[in-house]
Amino acid sequence: MLLIRLIKKLEVVEINPLNHLNSIEQNLCNKADLARLPIAGNIELLPLCNMDCKMCFAKMTRAEMEAHAPMHDYKEWLDIAEQMSRAGTIFLLLTGGEPFLYPNFKELYFALKRLGLIVSINTNGTLINEDIADYLASDPPRRLNITLYGASDETYGKLCNNSKGFTQVMRSVKILKERGIDIKFNCSLTPLNIHEIDQIYQISVDLDIPIEMGFYMFPPVRTNNIGNEKYRLDAKEAAWARFRMEQLKYGEEFANLVEYSLERYRNYEQTEEYKSGYTCRSGNSVYWINYDGTMSACSFTNDFKVNVFKEGFERSWTKLLDHVGNSQLSRECHECKKRILCGRCAAAAVSETGNISGTPRYYCELTAHYVELLEKYERNIK
After folding, report:
1. How far is it, in rounded angstroms, from Cα 268 to Cα 262?
2. How many folded domains does the chain comprise?
3. Which of 54, 202, 306, 374 could form a disulfide with 316 if both were Cys (CB 3.0 to 4.6 A apart)?
4. Cα separation of 130 and 179, whole Å?
5. Among candidate residues 108, 363, 7, the one with its CA nearest the CA of residue 215
6. Hey, how many other C-beta atoms are within 10 angstroms of the C-beta on 69?
């Protein structure tokens, strides 16, 4: 029975275009993917933030932003959102930078809700006060995704240059929970917070808030942040982080996960045809729009971009579909036995190699180390 429950849990993870969806939302997204309809979008409202996280791929100084492109007014975004809605978008994620720094965020948020969009928000959680919590509670978002960078102010100081960040986030969580606003934690694991992985997970348990920990960090594709990859885990550390994260998540079912994963890996046979297209929902039913208006499949693919303010949403989406449909990922990855346990994707290929058909060696090494950890665990429990 444990293994059956585990397989069902894994199947939900594999088919979700967005995490923690209910069954109705999952079915909608699955159908949109088959029809290649733009059901879910992400808008980066601005690249500015009140923190300075060392590994951030998106951050710009105000001078860098103005030199590249100024922010778009909320009425401009609302016009794009109306086009998105007509084209089939239901789910919309607002992100940044830090979205609560965006001018007229409140006005934009309520206007998007009036369009009937199901809105979620990514935030670092440090700026939320009683006033923000009150207006969110008056018409709640689908979810507030708070990035939890550590389990202490000390770690926030080292990683984010905010020595009060953890205290600020915990205060925000308290006032949000008091108002019944749905929260999910995200956590990007780096050399500066990996030592707190158990404490971070326990915080999510104690607060009864789901958490998604990222063991793999994409290299930044924006030129002003090239070099930030030095703050990601090396492949062996990332493999251990994945292993430990799953131990914490699955608890007593972890042994079944190991058995199931190794069985899939050892018995894997390549039967799928090598064909064009991405292996995820990005560019099929999900899209990303940078603060300057450039649409891409996701935030880490820069092999194709089109400006929605110049082209309009529907024309931009059609161009993106054509590009994704004619793209081919690595044949080597396609034929690799480890792909059954690997998170290979177009974004990893582009950001790691600069080419959609490139083979991301870092991820190959990460997965190989992960298999070694699974096999070592298997030997120790026999």
Report:
1. 10
2. 1
3. 306
4. 10
5. 363
6. 15
Give the confidence band of 40 by pLDDT, cuts at 50, 70, 90.
very high
From residue 43, how far is each of 84, 104, 141, 257, 382 by CA, in Å?
Answer: 11, 15, 15, 35, 49
Q: CA–CA separation, 156 vs 179, rounded Å?
A: 26
Q: For residues 272 and 368, which has the higher predicted lDDT (pLDDT)? A: 368
Q: Is residue 184 part of a domain?
A: yes
> SS3 of 221, please?
coil
Range of the domain at 12: 2-253+278-328
Residue-wise DSSP of 144-210: EEEE---SSHHHHHHHHS-TTHHHHHHHHHHHHHHTT--EEEEEE--TTTGGGHHHHHHHHHHTT--
In a domain? residue 368: no
**When comparing pLDDT for 226 and 108, which is higher?**
108
Whether 11 has a pLDDT exceeding 70, the answer reads no
Contacts of 1 (CB under 8 A, 6+ apart): none
Alpha-helix residue ranges (DSSP H) falling in 234-360: 235-250, 254-266, 308-311, 313-325, 331-335, 346-353
**Cis omega before residue 150 (within 30°)?**
no
Least confident of 74-83, 141-150, 332-341: 332-341
What is the model's pLDDT at position 29?
86
pLDDT digits (tens, 9 = 90+) for 265-297: 999 988 888 889 898 899 999 999 999 999 999
Asked if residue 6 has pLDDT above 60, the reply is: no
Using 50, 70 and 90 to split pLDDT, how confident is the model at 4? Answer: very low
Length of the chain: 382
Cα→Cα distances 141→80, 91, 137, 145, 315, Å: 19, 11, 8, 10, 29
Task: Please state the pTM of the whole predicted model.
Answer: 0.91
Which residue has tokens 């240059």? Answer: 161
The enclosing domain of 179 has a CATH number of 3.20.20.70
Average pLDDT over residues 176-183: 98
Nearest to 280 by CA among 96, 94, 29, 56: 29
β-strand partners of 294: 307
Q: d(Cα 356, Cα 6) in Å, to the nearest integer? A: 33
What is the residue type of 121? I
Whether residue 115 lies inside any domain: the answer is yes
